[in-house]
Structure formats: C-alpha cells, structure tokens
Automatic annotation (TrEMBL):
Stated name of the protein: Ribose 5-phosphate isomerase A
Source lineage: Archaea, Methanobacteriati, Methanobacteriota, Stenosarchaea group, Halobacteria
Organism the protein comes from: Halogeometricum rufum
Residues of the full protein shown: 46 to 289 of 290
Top EC class of this enzyme: isomerase
Keywords assigned: Isomerase
Regions annotated as coiled coil: none
Gene Ontology cellular-component terms listed: cytosol
Amino acid sequence: ERIRVVPSPKRIKSDAEDVLMDKRRRGGIEAAEAVESGMDVGLGTGSTTAWAIAAIGWKLREGELEDVRGVATSLQSHDLARELGIPLTDVDEFDSLDVAIDGADQWDPEHPHVVKGGGASHAREKLIDSMADRLVVATDDEKRSTPLSHDVPLSVLPESRNVAQEWVRDAGGDPSLRYAEAKDGPLFTANGNLVVDCDFGEIDDVDARAADLARIPGAQEHGLFVEMVDEVVYGTDESVERVE
Ligand code: 5RP
C-alpha cells in the first residue's frame, strides 16, 4: 500500500480504467517479489511492469533490496528505472540474467506462452526475457485466454512492409500496419522497423504460427513468446494470483 505514492505511469481516464490499473498495480507489485538482493534483472515494458519497476526502486531505497542491476527492455522502462534510482547496465554486458519481469498483451493460463509487443518493444523484450533464468509475467485477469487469439505484432524492415503483409495473408492472417497514435504516419520501433499486427483468430498451434512468422522475408521479430514463461502473476478485482 505504501507504494501507492508512486504515480501511475498512465493518467487515469475513467472508473473502468481505474479498476484495470488497480489490477495491474497489484500484479506488477507482486511480481517484484521475484527479485532478490544481488540479482541481475530484466525490466519489461508497459503499464503493469512499470509498477514492478516502481516496487523494485522503492525496495532499494528502503534497503529491502541491495546490489540489484537492471537491464531495460525499452527506453520507457530505462527512463523510469533511472528516475527511481535502479542501477542500470547494458544488455551486452551479460550472457544471462537471474530474472526478468515483463508484461503481456495476452496470456494463456494452460500453456507457457504469451503475446507481447503492444508497446512495439517485443524484439528487445524477447532478447532480454530469453536471457533470464526465470521469466515472470506481470499482468491482469482480463488478458487471460486459451487459446491465444490476440493480434501478433511482427516488426519488419520498412522496405518489406508489402511483402510481409502478403505472406501473412498467405498464412491465413489479416495484417494491418500499425500507425503512430497521432495517426500521422506509420509507427517505427526504436530500431527503425515497422510493425504489422497480424490477426490469425484463435492460435491453436503456436509453434506453427511462430514458424510462419519467422520465415517472412524482412521479418525482424514477432510477438509470440513460445514456451518462455515460468510464472504469471496477475491482478484480479480483489487480489493477486499466480500460475507457474
Ligand atoms: C510492450 C509489451 C507490454 O508488456 C504489453 O503491451 C503489456 O503492456 P501493459 O502492461 O501496459 O498492458 O509487450 O511491447
């Protein structure tokens, strides 16, 4: 409860959003329990993970944690962690990390898979999350789905946008190029790629889908994280639950 003083990373716009942000706050703060003193920690991206980052920063300040090094998955999490006093290190200084805490756009309670990339950071997230001995996903109960059915983001070289969308159609998907929030042009990732959101409906065979996306010419990374999740910590209306 003391962590309530840390401002929410998103402005609260309505009661419904207030309830949702409360769930994410619970999930994020509880997920930070996975961090112990001396650990090297992958810091994910998004509004839920922001609460985990806030909790880690708070514990460091209070002396409940010490000697923690963070590796950020995006500029957004880097800036937040720096503001909160978490020591940061570059990813290429590590071969592995002790734990990563990251969010998800959808998670499967029966299988260790998630869809990520709502913040267009899935390439760096996949790299850092895959380096961790333990990946803890911080999320909420509204994003639960078996099978996964969320649009899968695919980052592509700008010049391959048309070819990539054609390949997605051939694989039975419905692609759409992601636009920047102001809608004044396509959204570019931090690495200068475009994002094609791929609607495949229900994804019954995640391995096959992941293979389809990986073989697209010009594809850089897709947002299906297959068999990567060790634990999901998710906020509900009143509590926080976990699935291992
Ligand atoms: C960014 C991500 C985020 O983790 C995902 O979009 C969830 O974000 P939020 O917690 O704000 O719903 O994958 O690329």
